[in-house]
C-alpha cells in the first residue's frame, strides 16, 4: 500500500514492516498527530545484544519521523521472564539486579535516542511502576476475564513448550496478560497509541490492542518487524563466540566493528537500511560498487551509532593494522595467567568456545601468533603482548 505518513513511509522504505493490526488506521493517525509508540525490553542482563538492535532502530526511526519513542523497561515483567520461544524458564532476578541492568542498558539507548521533556523526546519508563502495585484478585476480575485460556494455549510461544513437554510455569503463563496490560496502562498514562516489536511478539501485541479496546474503548495499534536472519539462514547476532553485546564493557569496540565488517555479502544493503542512517540512494550506490567498501561503511556507521564515531575510527584503524600484520594497542586485550597455553588464550579471548574447538583450530592451522602459524605445541611467551589471530579476520592481543 502507499503510505501517507512520514513514519510509515520511512519504516517501509527501510524494510521494518512485517505485520500491522490496522495499517491504514495507523497511517492516518501518524499523518495527523504525534504518535507515542513503545517497545518493551526485558532487563535480563546488563546489556542488550544486537538481536535487539532492529527494535532500538525502530524507536530511532519514530523520532526521526517526528513522533515520540517510549522505551518500556520490564522491571516488573522481568521478575517473571518472557517465555516466548524459550526452552526453559529463566532464573528469577532480584530487584537490585534488575535496577542495575536497567541503568546499564539506558546508556546505550542514550546514543540512539534524544531523551527529554519535549513532545517528540524519548522517555524511558519501568512497568514495575504499575505492575508491582497490582492487587491479585481485582486484577483477575478486571483484566483476566478478557483472556481465553484456549486461545492463550494456541500461541506458538506456549504451544512449542508444551509440544516439547517442557515445563511452563503458571508464573510464565501470566506474562502475556501482563504485557497486554502494559499497553493499556501506557495508553492511559501517556497516550501511547502504538506498540512495536519483533514478529515473535505478534500475539502479545494483538492481546494488548484488544484489551485496550475492550476495557477502555481506545483504538491502539500494533506493528511488527520481520524476523531478521542472515543470508545463510542463521539468526541475527549469533556467533561462535556468543552474543554480540551492545554495551562497550560487555564487548570491545573492535569486536563490535568486526561483527559488522564480517556481514555476508547478501546482507550488506539490507543491514545498511536497517542499522544505519546512510541515505537510501547512497546505499544503492554502495551495493552496486565494491562490496568490501560497502561492508566497511556498514561497520563504520553501525559502530558509530552504538559506540560513538571515535570508537568506530579506532576500531577501523586497528583492523587495518591487524590485517596488515602489525600489533596495535587498539585491538581487544586479554590478560592471561602465568603458564597459560594457546588453548587457554583462545578460550579466554572468545576466539574459541571450548577446548575441543580450540584444539581443532590449532590442528587445522587456522591460528597464528604474531603472524606466524601456531600449533598445539607452540609455546605462549607472555613477556610482551602477543597478537593472536584466528583466520584472517579475528585478532586479539594477549599478555599478562
TrEMBL record:
L-tyrosine binds at residues 38, 175, 179. A motif ('KMSKS' region) lies at residues 235-239. One of its GO terms (cellular component) is cytosol. It comes from Sphingomonas jatrophae. Keywords: Aminoacyl-tRNA synthetase, ATP-binding, Cytoplasm, Ligase, Nucleotide-binding, Protein biosynthesis, RNA-binding. InterPro entries: aa-tRNA-synth_Ic (IPR002305), Rossmann-like_a/b/a_fold (IPR014729), S4_RNA-bd_sf (IPR036986), SYY-like_C (IPR054608), Tyr-tRNA-ligase (IPR002307), Tyr-tRNA-ligase_bac-type (IPR024088), Tyr-tRNA-ligase_bac_1 (IPR024107). This is Tyrosine--tRNA ligase. It is found in: Cytoplasm. NCBIfam families: tyrS.
